[in-house]
Known about the structure:
By secondary structure, the protein is of the alpha+beta class. Helix content is about 25%, strand content about 35%. The protein contains 5 helices and 8 strands; from the N terminus they run ββαααβββαβαββ. The protein has an 8-stranded mixed beta sheet, with helices on both faces. It is globular.
Amino acid sequence: MLEIPYPLSTERLVLRRFTTADLDAYYDYQRLPETARYLYGEARSYAQCMARIGRYVEEPFNGPGDWATFAVELKSAPGLIGEMALKWNTGGKPEGPVPERFGEIGWTMAPAAQGHGYATEAARAVLELALDRLGFRRVEARLDARNTASAAICERLGMAHEGVMRDNMYLKGEWTSEAVYATVRGS
Length: 187
């Protein structure tokens, strides 16, 4: 079992465990169509946000398939401005377990928090946690290929652009392509 060392701290941010007190701020940006534009689902209802916060509060991080989700807030002005997620991916060959961990990171920021470098700063902290402290060998980010802002974050993090899977998902009434970025420990 891995222990997530909540909270993480960066120069400007605190990445902490979610609490039920985050619900209203979470709903404020999750309900917006522009927030959901490049996500797998539609904008979320209050009830959907409540269910997600409930999961985030109690989420274990014990093995493949589990998520560690961080509430992101400014050190200078506490209050939720976004979230970062680290997924412990499953995989390996049928004959045995994967000898090292691999994962996936993702982020969503409130519109007012976008364009200030907060997502890059938070993603760097979670990427370092995964690679340096938790022993992940590979961490990837999968994003809608049209999401140039998230692609720029991946590039600032030094993640390699591994390719685009063209029209691999049918989401929100259209075919979309998925870009894959990744970093491997020691490379």
